[in-house]
Here is the input.
Amino acid sequence: MEMPAKQSVTIMLVEDDDGHRLLIRENLRAGGVVNNLVEMADGQQAIDYLTRRGQYHDRTKFPKPGLILLDIKMPKADGFAVLERIKADPELRLIPVLMLTSTDDQLEVNRCYTLGANSYVVKPIRYEEFQERIRALGLFLDIVRFPE
Amino acid sequence: MAELPTPKRALKRVLRVWIIGLLCFGYGPAFTYGFFIWLLNEQQWAWTYFMYTTLVPLVGGFCVLVLPWRSYHPIHHTLTRWANGEPVEAERVRMVYEQALRLPWQVAMGCLAASAIGYLVGTGVVHWKAHQPITEILKTLPAIPLVGGMMGAFCYFGTMRALHPIVAWCSRRLTQAPAVRALPIAVQFLTTTYVLAIAILCLMLPATYTLGQMITERHVQDRALMHLRSTLQAMPRDQSLDDRVARLPDAALGTHGYVFAAAPDGRLVGHPKGYRTLAQEGFYRVHERLQAAEGVWVDRVGRHRVVAFARLRLGEMPVTVISVAFPTDFAEPLGHFFLLSGLIVIEVLIAVMVFGRYYTKGITTPLAELTSTAERIAQHGDLALRVPVTTNDELSDLARSFNRMVEELETSKANLEHYTRRLEQSTQELSVLNQEMEDLLRVVSHDLRAPLINVQGFSKRLEPLMQETVQALDRIAAETSSNGLRVEVTTLKGDLQTRFAESLRFIAKGVEKMDTLLASLLAISRVGRKADPIQPQDLAAILDDVLATFHHQLEERAIRVIRHPLPQGVPCRRNEMNQAFSNLLSNAINFMGPSEHRCIEIGATTREQEVECFIRDTGIGIGPDDQERIFNMFTRLQAVDVPGEGIGLAYVKKIIRSHGGRVWVTSTKGQGSTFFFTLPTAHTVATRG
Here is the structure.
């Protein structure tokens, strides 16, 4: 099986807080991640994108992501709802999902795993730590195989 | 409430009943019977007297006192042991209770047995020593039901009354009094009434019989002698002896009576049975009686007969003419009297049975209604039920009291239900409020973190930007030729390096503090969640872990730690208890103050219900006004330069409360504080379910 090029994988970032979105994007870039990054401001938009609904019907313009970074607390549809939707869809269920949580609450983490998330990242207050975590994702992208 | 009588007092009460029963209801009727037998055969009075004064009391007394004593002895023994301070065990109380309820019946049976045995022995002696015929003895047989019945009935009720304090005391001690089989009230009443009726009849009938018999005897005696006299006088003097003898049957009285003559030498003439000598007739002390010229007596030895005699001179030879008459030939009125008496007896007994039944029904029917109502209430809890009040006596008072009690119960139950509902409502409201508060706490602490991340992130982002700007300003200052610009740029650079950097530092510090605060709030909101189960823990091991984290701080501040043993197997959430110890220790360290002998003492007292832990410090102490307040959230006592958000003790309080314990502090300002908290033991947790 040929390993798909890192650049060919589209990363979807679902995060309602635009500040967080900006910080995550900058740190990903600083970590050497040059992949195509699709940013979604809420859960419903992400679901629409993934299921090619409305304006997102064109797959060539809006490619299927190979990795999803998913915030939990969001308006309209929260991270759990999006995760459930992804795991229920046979077409999408193989996409790895990283949950972005703001606390390491054991109940929340357990729920993420129960619903089928692959991993989780706690958004830390200490900026350096956060930087490290997001940049580690670059490394992650190097070693993980993504489905077609 | 009545006390348990002393063994001596109880024994006195019981013995009094038995002795009165024996004297008044045992010996009293027995002497009546002795008198009766004495009347029946006067000649044997000495033996009768002997029997009723010695043998019957001896045997009867033995039976009445000694036989029940064997049944009473276990009660007396147990009462003595209790009086000596031995423990009152439920098993013994039950034994005494049952024995005391059985005793009256045993005593009554003993009385009956005693009278039967005493009677049989006594009459046996009379028969043996005085040749009293069995038929005559049998006439005194009613003595058994009379003496036994009266004595038994008295001793039954007397013993019951005497033992009542003991039975009542035992019954109050027993949660479930055992059912001792007893006779129903109707049977008790009928038995008692019958016993008394029969006893009176037994006393009355033989007495009246004897009286009737004596009247008959006197009548027959008079007639026999008169008839004999007139017959002899009517005989012509010139007749020959043989002629005269041939006319002797004219003097006979009644259908079975006969007359014969006895010569002075004892030879009999004209005896219808052909007896040759007087001895063959078997009259009692006949020669003494025949000394007189004429006479009459009642002979009870052998056949019951009246014997009259008179002299008849036949030439030179005085002949005694003897007439034997049988009172039974004249007993027809006596028979009628007995028939009448029998009818009266039967009527009395039937009347007793019928009225007794009516009377006892009047008692037992309301009682049965009361019992069945009480039973239905106990089984189905239907407090709407009432007992019908059908009479106007003590039983109706009982029924009314019962109804009032049920009414009272109904009201209390309704009140209880009302308050229980209100309590449930309030509890539910409170729990909803509490849940809302916790949700709010969690959401707030959770959501406040998101903007905080931005504040921190973007302020950090400014740092490299500032460095770049400083470098750019350096380059501008180096390359510009304008002095004014250089001064301006250098000032700006200075501002950037001091004020700008300082602003960023304060922002970072503020964010960090706020983050800690939010983390604490979040932790408080999570206390008592199901994810962390309660398990038996070794408190000493938890303290070990906590002390290890404070090791450096304690050493640095020269604080001595005194540890007392802490219990094992205390049901709690390990992480939370860790946090609680940690917060309390951190407080003790932070508020240690300038004391010379810095010391923290940790220990516990284990009781059946709970474990009480204490953490004592030699710190600055807390004033009495603040000792409650410090457990509230965000409470920080002023003028103390110690880091913290005022959440630590609120957190401890929440943890301990979620375990079902309490937390409090005792303190003297300037001399240190002691924080206490309790945790329920495994025993308490198990009983609470």
About this structure: Residues 1-7 of chain A have pLDDT under 50 and may be disordered. Strands of chain A lie at 10-14, 36-40, 67-71, 97-101, 119-122. The longest helix of chain A spans residues 127-143.
